Amino acid sequence: MKKIEVVAAIIYFENEILCVQRPTNKLSYISEKFEFPGGKIEKGESKKGALKRELVEELDFIPTKIEDLFLTVVHEYPDFELTMHSFKCYSKTKNIQLNEHISAQWLSLKNLEKLDWAAADIPIVKRLIENG
Predict the structure, then answer these.
(1) What is the CA 25 to chain-centroid distance, rounded?
(2) Centroid of chain to Cα 122
(3) Are the C-beta atoms of residues 50 and 42 closer than 8 Å to each other?
(4) Are 79 and 2 in contact (CB under 8 A)?
(5) Closest-CA residue to 9 (of 98, 132, 129, 124)
(6) pLDDT for 60-91, tens place per residue?
(7) Could you tell me which of 59, 61, 60, 62 has the C-alpha nearest to residue 101?
(8) What is the value of pTM for the model shown?
(9) Distance of CA 26 to CAs 23, 31, 77, 112, Å?
(10) Which end of the chain, N or C, is more open, meaning fewer C-beta atoms within 10 Å of its C-beta?
């Protein structure tokens, strides 16, 4: 089974977290699901370096701060295994540009579970809510 390693940003602006929606995809289990922004780690990149690059590519966004690793999730989808390293990040603005996603919402912790999340992102949502 193909293995993919990615990074994901849990971006905070004040008391809200950025949630972005994937575009339509031939893989129904990730098509139009919500996720935390991020992407694949390229050869020779650090996790935080990959996260900074992906946030610029996807959102024209540069975080003011990236904390240490929040949670690593290993999830088996039908076609591949995903290892996702998530990091809490902070922003001084809600101004983002959606370059790859079809929509975005800034939500409080209590509202995160209202979205239709990609399966690999659900453990991160649950941990965020548990930690308050």
Answers:
(1) 17
(2) 11
(3) yes
(4) yes
(5) 124
(6) 999 999 999 999 999 999 999 999 999 999 99
(7) 59
(8) 0.96
(9) 10, 7, 14, 25
(10) C
